[in-house]
Every structure is written in structure tokens, then in C-alpha cells.
Amino acid sequence: MAAVQAVEGRAPAWRGGFGRLWSAAVVSKFGDSLRTAAMPLLAATLTEDPVLVALVSAGGFLPWLLFGLLGGAVADRVDQRRAMWAVDLARGLLMAAFAVAVALGQASIALLIGVAFALTTLQTLFDNAATALLPSLVPAHALGSANARLMTGQQVAGTFLAAPLVPLLLVMGSSVPYAADALTYALAAALIASLRVPAPVRAPRPAGSTLRGDVAAGLKVLWADRRLRGLCTATTLCNIGVGGLVATLVLHVTGWLDAGQAGFAAAITAYGVGGVAGGAVAGRLAARFGRIRSVFLAGLAQTAALVVLGTVRELWAAVAAMAVFGLMGIVWNANQTTLVQERSPAEMLGRVSSAFRTLAVAGAPLGALLAGVAAAGWGLNAPALLAAALMASAVAALVPLIN
Question: What percentage of the chain exceeds 70 in pLDDT?
């Protein structure tokens, strides 16, 4: 098992492949954000049934539960660089075909659900391969900074560049956001294909080895590592709360706060600004306190922010709380991802990361369901308070890991 770096090292060099990987990730996130903002609007023009509109989002989430573990096992068997550019090329072709269908007026709810499902199915392989590839592009001491820079770049691309462009692109044509997404996938594929990374050297697999056995081995490694097991438990609890908050935030702001769409936009923007700031401080906190303590402190701050969000009935308080929540969310995510990379055997990183991610992601739909029940029974601010309680439980799960 790789040794854990206790102190954050220098920032990653842009040369040597990291700059191209960062550019590919940011470009791809830009295109994804165009699509994810435009697709619900398209769905709303095709049906007035809220269940069908929600199914479009569900179609983009379900593959993680069905194929997330399998994607990690495949990522450990293949050349990750080739898998990534091949997946991006396939996603680009899929989006180009979808853009043509929209332009010809052939879009339907069934097609939207199918496209969302297919894109996320491919993403399960891409994301796990990317997590496994990064340690081969940057030295161990720079992993934390590299993860923070990747997340910050994606936050900027999605929140501040793509989101404001969607209305302008839709004026040009309903298919334009999807065509733009296809182009970003093609560019990202070209950038990843240009990486000069040696193909991974792996020991021959035992006779009779199966993907099911590989998945089980990844779960076993995750369970056996006390720190990763505790961190995964905490992240799952956190995601239950976050899933509920995301599902009901618009009701919280427009209903409980009576702040309207402008207030909701302000809260979302504050979250994005906080996320960018989080990328700047994640490495500094890790250098000073260590990764587990940084995650612990991030959880404490997020718990406090959620309490403010759920108890102070003022828009300024909600905006401040969402900024803190976004900032500390990047601190949590960057250090969590780096810990998985540092503590996993190199030849099993795809499987361990997929096991961690799949278990953690599974909490989001449960949180959405609980938040809906809480909002209906106790008021529109109840999901924020429920999220605060779950975040506090996540922080409590981290306490035994601090030593």
C-alpha cells in the first residue's frame, strides 16, 4: 500500500501531462454543464408531467448504482488513457447524434432518458480511469494540489462560464448546447489521446479471474482500511444530507425565504464562488492539519452553515451559508479523493475508488426522498436541518480517525 503523505507538497507542474488532463477535464465539464442546464428545459417543453421530467435526471444517476463498481474493475484491467479518450469520443458521437435529433424535432422524453443513462454509464468507466491515471502524471507530494486544481477548474467552467451561456445558445437553436457538448468531448478526447503515459504494467491475472472477483477485491481493500472505511461512511452520511438539500433548495429559497428566482440564483452563485475559494485553501489546510483533520474541519463548518441555512430566515444568511458550504465541500472532496489515491494499491485504485464512490453516491437518492418527506411534514426549512443532523453524524464518524 502506498505511503500516506502527511504534508502537502508543491503544486503539480503543468508540463508532463497534468496540464492537458486539467484542460480536458475543464473543457468536458464546460460542455457537460451546457447539457445539464439545457436538458431539463427541453424536457419541460416535451411534457408537463413532473415525474417524467424527474426521470430524465434519474436516468443520469442510476448507472452509478448499477455499473459504478464494474467501471472500476474495468479501469484496472485496461490502459486508462486509452479508455478515457475512447469514452470521450463515444460520448461526443452520442451527443452529436442527439443534437441532430433535437434539431430535426425528433426528441422525446424516452430519448432524453436513454441519452442521460448512456452518458452516465460511460462516465462510470471514465471517472474511475481518471482517478487511477492521475497518480502517474503528478508526483505523490502534489496529488492533493492536483485534485484541488482539477475541481476548481471544473467549478469555474461549470458555474461561471457555461451556465450564463445556456440562454444565449438556446436563442441560437434548441440543439446548439448539445452540439457544443459534442465538440467539447471531441476536444477532450484529443487532449487525453496526446498524453505520453506509458501503458500500465500489470502482473498476469490468475486463471479464472472474473470481473465479479475483481469488484469483490476492491470492496475488501476498502473495508480493510480503517481510514478509508470510516471516510466512506462519513461521506455517505454527508451525501444523504446533500442529496436532500439539492433536491429541495429551490423550494427553501423561493418558498421559505420568499426570495424568488433571483434569490435562488444568488444562493447557487454563492455556492460556486465558495467552491472556487475552497480549491485555493484545500492544500493549505491539508499542509497544516493533515487530510483527515481537514475533512473533519470542513464537516464542522458545513454543519454550522446548514444550521444557519435552516434557522435564519434571511436571504443574506442563506447566501453566506451556501458560500461556506461550497468552500468546505471542495476541501472535503479534494482531500477525500487524494486519500483514496494515496492509500490504495496502485493496481487496484480503479476498483477501490469505484467502491468508495458508488457507496457514497448511493446516499443521494435516499436523501432526496427523506427531504421530500421532511419538507411536507415539518416545513420547507426542514431539509436543511436534516442535512445538518446528517453532516454532524458524518463528523462524528470521523472522530475515531483523528490521532
Answer: 91
Tell me the three cell numbers of residue 382.
Answer: 426542514
Burial track 89-122 (b if 16+ CB lie within 10 A, e otherwise): bbbbebbbebbebbeeeebebeebbebbbbbbbb
**In this structure, is the dihedral angle defined by the CA atoms of residues 159, 164, 168 and 173, taken in order, positive or negative?**
positive
pLDDT at 7: 46
First to last CA, the chain: 20
Please check whether residue 299 is in contact with residue 398, taking contact to mean a CB–CB distance below 8 angstroms. Answer: yes
Three-state DSSP string of 221-267: HHHHCHHHHHHHHHHHHHHHHHHHHHHHHHHHHHHHCCCHHHHHHHH
pLDDT tens, residue by residue, 36-72: 878 877 887 887 775 676 677 666 777 888 888 888 8
